[in-house]
Amino acid sequence: MTRQNLESLDEAKLVGLAVSENSQQAFSELVNRHQSNLRYSLRQLTNWDEALADDLAQDTFIQAFKELAKFRQDAKFSSWLYRIGYNVFLQHVRKKSLDTQSLDDQPLLANQLEQAPEADDDSEVHQKVAKLLATLEPERRSVLHLFLHRQHTQQEISEIMGIPHGTVKTHINRGRIVLQDGLRQWRD
Amino acid sequence: MNTTDFNLPGSGSYNGSGSGDDRTLDALFASARTSQPNLADDNFTKVVLNSLPRNPFAQERVNLRKSFSFDMIGALLGLLCVYFFVDLASVASALLNVVPESLVISPVHVVGFAAAFMVTAIGAWWTVENVKL
C-alpha cells in the first residue's frame, strides 16, 4: 500500500492493518499523525525538557505498538496514546524520583518566572506554562494539562487517565489555586 | 506580550468564580493552545520504527491459540465426564420440580426488589468514585 493510500485511511483502519498484517507502514502513519501532539504534551509534563520528552514519546509509541491489538476501535486513538504516554511518564518519575517542584523549593524556577514577565515569542509562552505545571504533582499536572490546554471535559479526563471523576474535580480546583499563586508571583 | 493582554478563552467545563486570576490563567493556557507548534518530525518516526520489535503479535497469537486449545480440551473432558457419570434425566426432572406452578408477586416483593437494586447501584457508584481500580 502506498504512502498516499495510507494517508487517506482513518485511524481504525490503520490500527487494523498494523495488527492483522503487522504493517509497520500503517503504524508509521499513526506515529506521523500523532508525534507532534504527544511530544508537546510530554514537554509540558516534563518542565519542557525536550530530550526527555522525546525519549518518553518514543517509549510511548513502542509500548503502543506492542499493545495495539488491545486498542478498542470505538475509543479515540489520541486519548489511548496519551494514556500510555502518561503511564510512561509516571514510570520515569517513579524511577528518577523526579517529583513535585515548588516555586519556593526551586529558586531558579521562581527567578525565571519573575525575570520574564513578558513573553517575546510563542515558545516562551509554552515554556512558562510547562514551568508553572512543574509546580504540581505529576497526576495533577496531567489533569490540568488535559483540562486547560487540551480542553477535555472532566469526564473525558477521568476516562483517559483512569481515575475517578471526583479526583479529577479535586485536582482541577486545587491545581488552579497553585497555578494562580505561581502566576501572581510572576506578576508581582 | 503581557499576561493581562491574553484573550479570554473557553476553558472546558470549569464552573469557577471567573475572577481576574482565573481569567489570566485561562488566557495564558489559551495563548499556549492557539500557538502550539507543529513539531517537525526530524527523524523521530524513523527512530521509533527502528526500535519496534519484529513481530509482537505473533507470540500473542501463539499464546491465544494455546490458551484456546486448553479451554476446548477442558470443555470436552468436562462434557464426557458429565455424560458418563451424571444421570441427566433425573437432574432434568429434579430441576422441573423446583419450578413453582404459580408465582405471586406482591407489592412487598416489588418494593424489596427496588430497594435491593438501589442499594446495589449506590454501592457500585461509590466504588467507582472512590476506589482506584
Write up this protein.
The complex is a heterodimer of chains A (188) and B (133). By secondary structure, chain A is an all-alpha fold. Chain A has helices at residues 3-8, 11-20, 24-45, 50-66, 77-96, 107-115, 122-133, 138-149, 154-161, 165-187. Chain A folds into 2 domains: 1-98, RNA polymerase sigma factor, region 2, helix turn helix motif (Rna Polymerase Sigma Factor, Chain: A), CATH 1.10.1740; 99-188, Arc Repressor Mutant, subunit A. Chain A contains 10 helices and no strands. In chain A, α9 packs across α10 (165-187). In chain A, 43% of the residues are buried. Chain B has 133 residues and is mainly α. Chain B has helices at residues 20-34, 44-51, 56-85, 88-98, 107-130. The radius of gyration of chain B is 32 Å and the shape is flat. At the A-B interface, α3, α4, α7, α8 and α10 of A face α1, α2, α3 and α5 of B.
Poorly predicted ranges of chain B: 1-17
Q: How big a fraction of the residues of chain A is strand?
A: under 5%
Name the shape of chain A in a single word. Answer: elongated
Q: What's the CATH class label of the largest domain in chain A?
A: Mainly Alpha
For this entry, what is the oligomeric state of its chains? Answer: heterodimer
CATH topology of the largest domain in chain A: Rna Polymerase Sigma Factor, Chain: A
List low-confidence stretches of chain A. Answer: 102-120
Total strands of chain A: the figure is 0
Kindly name the structural category of chain B.
mainly alpha
Question: What's the average pLDDT of chain B?
Answer: 81
DSSP, total strands of chain B? 0
> Helix and strand succession of chain B?
HHHHH
| CATH architectural grouping of the largest domain in chain A | Orthogonal Bundle
**What fraction of residues of chain B sit in β-strands?**
under 5%
Radius of gyration of chain A: 18 Å
